[in-house]
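Students often ask why inverse folding is considered easier than folding. One informal answer: many sequences map to the same fold, so there is more than one right answer. In these notes we will look at a single instance of the problem. The structure comes first.
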């Protein structure tokens, strides 16, 4: 499979993934390693909490509402992701921003920021692609599962990271 074949098979999911990957790596470069650590920890928290609890809460919602199982799972997954991200964002604003001073970034801090940003991008994309896979819309699920070249990598990566972190935390 040549480069032209790969490019011709790209769909909107793959384009979204590439845009997010480059944007978050650039943000990591400009912010540096110190400013990327809490967002990286936050996306790890989002990944673990959403993958660990969405189906349990989704089942409860499906049993007590008119939503179907897939719609309840999708809604729960999105809600857990936003709530968890918001909590980490509040921690960042209320605690970390008060402690960390603005500093001149060295090239090593910028390289560390790119690496942390790349890891954060991979995990964020894993969360987003998994949400798209859970979406109760057949076109979106088809675009993610069948048409996308890259989505399956991010779904597998997210599941593997969740498994490792959950085992480490013994949850």
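Output (designed amino acids):
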């Amino acid at each position: 499979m040549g480069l032209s074949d790969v490019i011709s098979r790209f769909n909107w999911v793959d384009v979204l993934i590439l845009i997010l990957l480059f944007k978050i790596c650039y943000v990591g470069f400009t912010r540096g390693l110190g400013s990327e650590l809490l967002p990286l920890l936050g996306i790890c928290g989002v990944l673990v909490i959403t993958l660990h609890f969405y189906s349990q809460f989704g089942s409860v919602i499906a049993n007590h509402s008119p939503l179907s199982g897939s719609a309840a799972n999708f809604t729960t997954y999105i809600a857990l992701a936003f709530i968890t991200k918001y909590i980490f964002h509040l921690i960042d604003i209320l605690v970390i921003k008060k402690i960390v001073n603005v500093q001149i970034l060295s090239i090593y801090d910028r390289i560390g920021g790119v690496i942390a940003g790349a890891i954060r991008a991979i995990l964020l994309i894993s969360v987003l692609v998994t949400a798209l896979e859970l979406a109760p819309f057949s076109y979106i699920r088809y675009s993610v599962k069948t048409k996308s070249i890259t989505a399956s990598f991010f779904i597998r990566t997210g599941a593997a990271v969740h498994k490792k972190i959950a085992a480490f935390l013994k949850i």
